[in-house]
C-alpha cells in the first residue's frame, strides 16, 4: 500500500535528517548508554526476562531507564520479531509509550523511532500492537523539545501518525483513531515541531504517481493547522517565538501553494496575535521582504494579503514605484488589472503624509484611464469599483484637492455618463440574478456582482453631484452580499405540472380502491337508494311494504302508499 511504503521510507528519512541535524548526537549522551552491570548480557536472556528487568529498573525512578539502554534496545529488537510472544511485544511497546520520554540517549531515541516505524510499516495487522506503536511515537514529544537536534523525533512522529490516519486500507479504524489521539497528544507536548511538519506537508510539491494521496496529505495538514490556530485551549502554545517562526514559514510556503490554500494560509497568518496587534503590517512586511512584485502571482498574492491589512500608516509607495505600478496603466478587462487596482487601493489606505501627494495624482490618472470618455463601462466592473474606492480613500486624506477635482466639468460629465449606463444596467442585472435564484443556480458571485454594481452607481452618482458619497460602502468582494428576494407567483407551466401530478395520484388511488362509479348525469349513474332497502342485510324488506309482518299480521306500509 502506498501510505505504508511511505511510512517505511520515513525511517530512512529520519536517519538522514538525524545525521544532518545532529552529527554529534551519536557519541554525546547525557548519561552513560550502558551501565557496568549490563556490559555483557547472558545469552539465555529472553524477551520476558528483559521486560522484567526494565520494569524493575523504572519501579523506583523512571530516570534510571538510562542505565539500562542496552536492555531497552534488545527488547525493542525482540518486539520487532514476529516470532516473539505477542503479549510481550505489546507490553514492550506500551513500556516505551509510558517511559520513553525519560530516555536521554541519542542512539536509543533513534532506535526507538526506527523500530516503531518498522512495526507500523510491516505486515503486522494486530490492532493492539499497532495502537501501542502509535502511542510510543507520541511519547517522544517531551524529549524532542529539550534540544533542537532532537526535534526530528516529533517531526517524523507526526509524519508517520498522519500517514496512519490517512491509510484506510492498511490500518483498522481503531488504529487510525489511536493515531489521531496520539497526534493530539504530540501537539500538546511538542507544538513547534509538529507545526513545522504540517507546513512542510502543505508545501510538499513532490512528483508522485499518486496525486490523490498528495492532495489528501495537503488537505489534512491544512485542516490541522487551521484547527491549531483557532483552538482556544492551544493559545498558550502560541508564544511570540513560535508565532515568528510560523509566520516566516508561511511566507516561505506561500509561493508553492494553490490559490485556495493561499487564502487559508493568509487567514491563519493574519490571525496570529503579533500580526493582529499591528493591523496585519508584520505579515505585509515579511511578504514584501521575500517577494518582488514582478509576476502576476505575486501581484495577486499581494491583493489577497491586502484584504487582511487594517487602515494603519505604512509606506509601500516605494515598492510600487520600483514595480512600475503607479505609472503602468491599469488593464481594464483582465484579472491582472483588478489585482493591480486592489494593490493601489491598499496603498491608498496605508498612505502616509509623506507619499499621499504622489499616490493621489497617480490614482486620478488611473481612474481617468479606466473611465475614458464616460461613454462605455469596462468589462470588469470590479476594477472600476476598486479604483473609485481608492480615489475616495486618498481623497479623504486630501479633502481640499478632492473637492476641486469634483468641480471639474469634464470629470463630472464622465461620471454622469457612466452613472446613466449603470442605472440602465442594474435593473437588468437584478432581473437576471432573480431568474437564476428561481432556478436555484445563483451563488455568492451573483450577489457580489449586484453589490459591485450598487457601489459603482452610488459613487458615480455622488461624484456627478459634486460631493463625496455619504455613509459607509463595503467592498463587494470582501463581504457576503444578499441575493435579491423573489416573489413566488403562479407559473402556468408549474400549475399544469401540478395538475398532472394530482391526476396521477388520483388515478393511483382509484386503482387501489377499485373502480369508481360513473359521474352524475349519465345513464349508468344509479339513483340514490334509501338506506336499509334492497340490501343484503334487510331480509324482510318486501314484507314491510304493506304485506304481512314478521308476526304474521297484516300491517299498513310505514311510508304512505295504498293498502
TrEMBL record:
Comp. bias intervals (Basic residues): 553-563
Low complexity bias spans: 23-41
Classification via InterPro entries: ARM-like, ARM-type_fold
Top-level taxon of the source organism: Eukaryota
Region Disordered: start-end pairs: 18-41, 510-563
Protein's name in the database: Uncharacterized protein
Natural source organism: Trypanosoma cruzi
